[in-house]
């Protein structure tokens, strides 16, 4: 899309120059100008059609999400035929996908010496730490992603990862809510954020299961 916008801008600039000097051109040059005019019109049409297609796709996705949410609120809990988990007696999976969680860690990214001292926030995510002997250490907030598999069953929520995996049975689930592309899960004093394409649907799925 950005390339098309740049191309459109260039064509418009050229077209303006062609229009100003059109009467001065020879017949062959006028034909070249007409070709550029047609190219501008075709590119404009393509961009408009692409935008309309994107809008229609967004509307279809919104309607599909609304239908899925209404179905879940009506108590229609899906069941998957297979699961990556070893399921317990009476347990079935309702959702499973590859995704990731993330944490923000303040890490040392540079240093000019050693020693203790105080840490001062310079800009968002960047800290300057001064040592007792005039040293300077640069710290920065670094986002670390942990990829794994997120699974929702009728008994628990599971994220499979060797370092940041978790398992939450429904009785220990405090809250669940979606925000942007994140499903936020609270279990007592611990919180987790799982990144999903449609977290609002999975939120409703979890709430529907919790109500049963």
Strand content: 35-45%
Beta strand count: 9
The low-confidence parts are none
Instruction: Report the order of strands and helices.
Output: HHEEEEEEEEEH
Shape: elongated
Helix content: 25-40%
Alpha-carbon distance between the two ends: 46 Å
Task: Report on the architecture of this protein.
By secondary structure, the protein is of the alpha+beta class. The chain contains 3 helices and 9 strands. It has helices at 2-20, 27-73, 199-211; strands at residues 93-111, 117-123, 126-131, 136-153, 156-160, 166-169, 175-179, 182-187, 190-195. The strands form 2 sheets. Strands 1, 2, 3, 4, 5 and 6 form a 6-stranded antiparallel β-sheet that branches. Strand 8 and strand 9 form a beta hairpin. The longest helix is centred in the first third of the chain and has 47 residues, at 27-73. The chain is elongated and about 85 Å long. The mean pLDDT is 81.
